[in-house]
Amino acid sequence: MKQIITYYLLFLLPLFGYSQADSLQFSNAIRINFAKYKQESETAYRTGDTERGQYLFDSLVQNRLKGTYFNEFKFKKVHGGKFKLEKITKPVVLITYASWCIPGTGEIPAINKLAQKYRKEVQYVVVFWDRRHEMKKMAGKFSHNVIVCYAHESYRNDAPIVASLKHTLGFPTAFYLDDQHRVVDIERCGGAISLKKTQYQKGYALNYNKYLEGLHGLLMNFELKKEMLAVK
């Protein structure tokens, strides 16, 4: 009996160790957990239970994705060259869009303001799931403090990135990564998308506050709360 136990320990421990190390990568964690999440999420939204749909998203993030290490993705920059995540040594806010997915009122100006204000502490990156010519006009609305990139299945080497990010959690989505590229939080962004008739200042304040909240976990500085804008 002792020999059997020893055999199983010798056989299973290496597998257990590999599994844990493997799950630390974001792409592996999402691959392992996505099938069940997708099935339950699609059922929730099909039946109109948006509250449960959001609960499932939050549970996936909190229980399976937070703490995993983001893959060292490489993206094509709109003005040429490559953006390499591995080269960034400070926290990153990575936001995904598509050119036909219209940002909410005041959303891009809010991102530009935060990217300028915290340019020394945080790198803002926006990725469009488009071909370059499709997103170029929208890309021009972001300031020089935001690195704007694009990715599409038709481009070489982009398929794994699209599969891991676009075809799992959808968009628009914001990924908050610490300086080790560990996932601190993931949120569905575009807080004012449904407020199409909202006045600009209200939309701007809603989006500014939403993205500012996301910075709390990255910067560990709760003085940020003092910067919340009044929403009227």
Which keywords apply here?
7-stranded mixed sheet, 7 helices, alpha/beta, globular, 232 residues
Folded structure, characterized:
- The chain is an alpha/beta fold.
- The longest helix has 22 residues, at about 1-25.
- The protein has a seven-stranded mixed sheet with strand order 2-1-5-4-3-6-7, sandwiched between helices.
- It has helices spanning about 1-25, 25-45, 50-65, 105-115, 130-140, 160-170, 200-220; strands spanning about 75, 80-85, 90-95, 125-130, 145-150, 175, 185-190.
- Helices cover about 45% and strands about 15% of the residues.
- Residues about 1-25 and about 190-195 have low confidence and may be disordered.
Topology readout:
Elements: H1 2-23, H2 26-46, H3 50-65, E1 74-77, E2 82-84, E3 92-97, H4 107-117, E4 123-128, H5 132-139, E5 146-150, H6 159-169, E6 173-177, E7 183-188, H7 200-219
Parallel strand pairs: 3-4, 4-5
Antiparallel strand pairs: 1-2, 1-5, 3-6, 6-7
